[in-house]
Amino acid sequence: MQEDLIAIGELAARTRLSLKALRLYGDRGLLPPARTDPRTGVRRYGPAQVERARRIALLRAAGLPLARIAAVLDAGGAESVRLLAAYWREQESVHAARREAAGYARAVLTGRNPTVYEIAEREVPEQKVLFTRSQVTAADLPGFLAASSELLLSHLRQTGACLSGPIFAVFDGLVSEDSDGPVEVCAPTVNPVEPAGRIGVRIEPAHREAYLTRTKRQAGFAAMAAAHDAVGTWLTDHGHTRSAANREVYYPNWATAGPDEHVADIAVPFRPGAGA
Fold it and tell me: CA 43 to CA 203: how far, in whole Å?
């Protein structure tokens, strides 16, 4: 009933949330007012929204972004708990990746040669690839990789073609919070395919590459960035010359793998040095 509704100021007092935060949550659809006066724009809230606001504050304090909070609260019951646990596992993985990257950086800063990586070599044959390319920062990279992979796989399905190897991404420039170096997502195939829209087709030359394997636990952005640096340093230390851009190879078990399963490689094509 109308008399049960409270003003936004009263909601702020009961929840200790600021008026700015409450307006933001309302505008994002996370905590819409029970009623908004069409003439004055005054927002009023029902009793149940006090509890929802309290839960939003708790989840925000735990670090959840607003979109994830909406999913957790709207799921309800055991599913809410499962979604929160899934988010926390992701954050623990991110923290572990940053710890590994910090250890590598500490070794570099103190002038020691990091020994945490085992780098191997392999020959990669010439292959035809479908590709799509864009400028992306670190924040946009996961979404771009997922969307591009699905775009390429959909095109393969529509043309009756099949993957002939793992999908990989070529980093033609540095990708970080501040740098949006071009990234090219590639899907190898041996079948006849044609370009379509944002999808191109090219031949990836045969090459020798140095590579470093990554488990799911080690696949966070920070740890991957340290691994890229480690492979580049290994090339320099062995007198080799980089012959093409760094790439990341993603294996089919990426989405389902356990923490210690191999899911990706960091690879850099190179020309062997004279003494190799």
Answer: 60
**In the structure encoding, which two tokens stand for residue 164, read together?**
């002939």
Q: What is the pTM of this model?
A: 0.69
pLDDT at 115: 56
Tokens coding 225: 């960035």
- What is the rounded average pLDDT for all residues in the chain? 89
Which pair of tokens denotes residue 126? Answer: 């010439």
Mutual angle of helices 66-75 and 77-109, in 10-degree steps: 150
As a whole number of angstroms, the distance between CA 165 and CA 13 comes to 59
pLDDT, one tens digit per residue, over 74-115 is: 998 899 999 998 888 878 877 777 777 787 777 778 776 655
Question: What pLDDT was estimated at residue 1?
Answer: 44
The sign of the CA dihedral 152, 209, 234, 240 is negative
Between the CA of residue 67 and those of 44, 140, 211, what are the distances in Å? Answer: 23, 16, 36
Whether residue 146 is predicted with pLDDT greater than 90 in this model: the reply is: yes
Q: Tokens 């020959």 identify what position?
A: 123
Q: Which two tokens stand for residue 98?
A: 């940053």
Question: Cα separation of 146 and 228, whole Å?
Answer: 20
At position 104, the amino acid (one-letter code) is: Y
Closest by CA position to 60, among listed 94, 7, 16: 16
Contact by Cβ (8 Å): 43, 36:
yes
